[in-house]
Amino acid sequence: MDTHEAAVPPAHGGRPRVLPPRPGKGLIAALAVSGICVLIAMGIVLANGSPTGFGVSFALGLAPLPILLAAVLALDRLEPEPRLNLLFAFAWGAGIAVVLGVVLELGGTMVLVRAFDVGERAAETATLVAVAPVVEEALKGAALLWLIWRCRREIDGPTDGIIYASMVGLGFAAVENMIYYSAAFTETGTEGAVVLFVLRGLVSPLGHPLFTSMIGLGVAYAVTTRRRGGFLAIPLGYLGAVLLHGLWNGTSALESLPALGAAYLLELVVICALVVVTVRERRLLVALMGVHLPAYLGTGLVTPYDIGMLGSLSTRRQARRWARGIGAGRAMSDYQQAATELVMLHQRAERDGTGPGELAAERDALLATMARARESFVPRSPSQPQPA
Q1: Nearest-angstrom CA–CA distance, 156 and 278
Q2: Nearest to 86, CA basis, from 101, 73, 98, 71
Q3: pLDDT tens readout for residues 188-217
Q4: Among 375, 268, 366, 293, which Cα is nearest to 330's?
Q5: Which element (helix H / strand E) includes 87?
Q6: How far apart are alpha carbons 52 and 182 in whole angstroms?
Q7: Are 344 and 281 contacting, i.e. CB atoms less than 8 angstroms apart?
Q8: Which of 57, 208, 313, 339 could form a disulfide with 182 if both were Cys (CB 3.0 to 4.6 A apart)?
Q9: Do 134 and 173 contact (CB within 8 A), yes or no?
Q10: pLDDT tens column, 233-277
Q11: Which residues of 44-58 are buried (b: 16+ CB within 10 A; e: fewer)?
Q12: What is the DSSP code (8-state) at residue 385?
């Protein structure tokens, strides 16, 4: 574990923090190295172009990020991941993965040219199609393996795997795109950089997150399954990522519009499948409210009405809307999140065999958060009206 969790009630005022994390030395070191690599990557962009080209490529690389990050984080609202872990995943992709990827791919191209007497253009194409997917997906996937090692408990299901993988992929894509935009600016000016931005930043912005999500699914399955050989899902996920990545790069190299359209259609199908996976997992999670929460009816912090409200995404939204009407929207969100964390705590305990002491400490912290949140809306609704 890379965080320290304490059973403390939330501080008065502001948003209660359930089990506030303390970043470990490993996470801090990894973030520092990733940050240095991001600076190196920016140096590569600047060294291979002009200050104007750097500014244009930097702006174009960042332009789609707010929307893409919002789309990924929207999947994470039911049980949010620690922000520091998400930052680490993004920084790893933008820094370590990009820098090592550039070095290894340039090395691969040089080997093909010098050792195998392959023409420079053919070597670049071979690197794009065969070397880049293998190298880049391994480097991006390494961030997920690090999370298994240091923060295994933060991965509770496929949605978590998809989210962390997507953050790594978005970081990688942002900086890699800057490198390509800078090269295009050097060759054809602003027009060339903008044309490439339309193709990479607007038409296919989810390529890298999509590819690496295959590894994220494998990692999530390996962490959460009780079956023997579950960790075989990780190399299988990596193989899927490499195949998707290689297919996309291969069709791009062919410069065939029908082939590229087929690859794009496949990407859309896989994206839809990932959305279905996340929606299904969210529905299964809220359904578990009726399994674990009845044990807390005697505490006064959970009522039959609350269990019904928490057991459906639509009734959760209605409850938040009702609470906002009486000025307790944040408290209702805190209550719902703490109750969700409580259910997931029981799920992890059943899966991993959590010790009773650790279970009790985390449970009590979550109950304290629920108690504080209820103070904001229960006195105003003594008859427990249905949210409007």
Answers
A1: 12
A2: 73
A3: 999 999 999 998 999 889 999 999 999 999
A4: 375
A5: helix 83-92
A6: 9
A7: no
A8: 57
A9: no
A10: 999 999 999 999 999 999 999 888 899 899 999 999 999 999 999
A11: bbbeebeeebbebbb
A12: P
Distance of CA 242 to the CA centre of its chain: 19
Q: What's the half-sphere exposure (Cβ side, CA atoms, 13 Å) at 24? A: 13
Q: In Å, what is the CA distance from 284 to each residue of 81, 159, 287, 312, 342?
A: 18, 12, 5, 10, 15
| DSSP secondary structure string for all residues of 282-308 | HHHHHHTHHHHGGGGGGGTS--HHHHH
- Distance (Å, rounded) from C-alpha 349 to C-alpha 344? 8
Q: How far apart are CA 318 and CA 310, in angstroms?
A: 10
285 φ, ψ to 5°?
-65, -45
Instruction: Write out pLDDT tens, residues 18-45.
Output: 544 566 778 888 889 999 999 999 998 8
For residue 151, give every residue at least 6 positions away whose Cβ sits within 8 Å of its Cβ, in sequence order, or none: 1, 2, 3, 27, 82, 85
Task: Please enumerate in sequence order all residues whose Cβ is within 8 A of that of 286, keeping only pairs 6 or more positions apart, or say none.
Answer: 78, 310, 311, 312, 313, 316, 340
Integer angstrom CA distances of residue 362 from 217, 267, 367: 27, 40, 9
Kindly report whether the global pTM for this prediction surpasses the value 0.85: yes
> Residues 340, 346, 352, 355: what is their CA dihedral angle, to the nearest 10 degrees?
120
Tokens of 253: 């190299």
Q: Is 20 left (phi over 0), alpha (psi -120 to 50) or beta?
A: beta
SS (H, E, C) 217-235: HHHHHHHHCCCCCHHHHHH
Which residue matches tokens 């009405």? Answer: 305
Query: CA 319 to CA 312: how far, in whole Å?
Result: 11
**Which pLDDT belongs to residue 338?**
93
Phi first, then psi: what are they for 79, rounded to 5°? -145, 80
DSSP helix/strand/coil, 132: helix
Residue 32, CA distances (Å) to 28, 65, 87 in order: 6, 22, 11
In 3D space, the residue among 371, 367, 365, 363 whose CA is nearest the CA of residue 345 turns out to be 363
